[in-house]
């Protein structure tokens, strides 16, 4: 099967929908213009940025030999607090993964990273304000389709480690 660009290199979208359909969790799909930036896509979907799940792949160096990959999920209007991540893992360093690593670990192109991990080596951490959202919006591993789910159902399904990892102030 020929590949056209990177859009179809991952079955992440199908895995997500299959997971939702077998879990009897209520969700909605929203089709929109292809857009991956949190601010722009929130406007297209018609909700405040605080209801979006912003998903970032981080590199956490615990010590000289150990690097862990962390998928951090924070409200769309906030930034990831790298110091909070560092202390969470008692690590020497925490920073953003390079694009290629992020794409490989998240199995999605930038702008479409899900707040779910389908890779055993990608650890999922979500801010408490994400899991308490009545309606949580995120790109469904595609730039042209988004998903809405309750924060509570998201937490039950994705089973993230919940910790305060968002900067208190808006970005």
Describe the structure.
- By secondary structure, the chain is α+β, with helices and mostly antiparallel strands.
- The chain is built from 6 helices and 10 strands.
- The longest helix has 12 residues.
- It has one domain: Alpha-Beta Complex (YbaK protein), CATH 3.90.960.
- The protein has a 5-stranded mixed β-sheet.
Give a short overview.
This protein is of the alpha+beta class.
For the structure shown, list the relevant keywords:
171 residues, alpha+beta, YbaK protein, five-stranded mixed sheet, 6 helices, disordered N terminus, aminoacyl-trna synthetase
| Morphology | globular
**Straight-line N-to-C gap:** 42 Å
Secondary structure category: alpha+beta
Number of domains: 1
CATH homologous superfamily - what is it? YbaK/aminoacyl-tRNA synthetase-associated domain
CATH topology term: YbaK protein
Number of helices: 6
Major sheet characteristics: 5 strands, mixed
GO molecular function: aminoacyl-tRNA deacylase activity; aminoacyl-tRNA ligase activity
Keywords: Aminoacyl-tRNA synthetase, Ligase
Pfam families: tRNA_edit
Organism: Streptomyces sporangiiformans
Helix and strand arrangement:
Blueprint: H1 12-23, E1 28-31, H2 38-45, E2 53-61, E3 67-75, E4 78-80, H3 82-88, E5 93-96, H4 99-106, E6 122-126, H5 128-131, E7 136-142, E8 145-149, H6 151-158, E9 161-162, E10 166-170
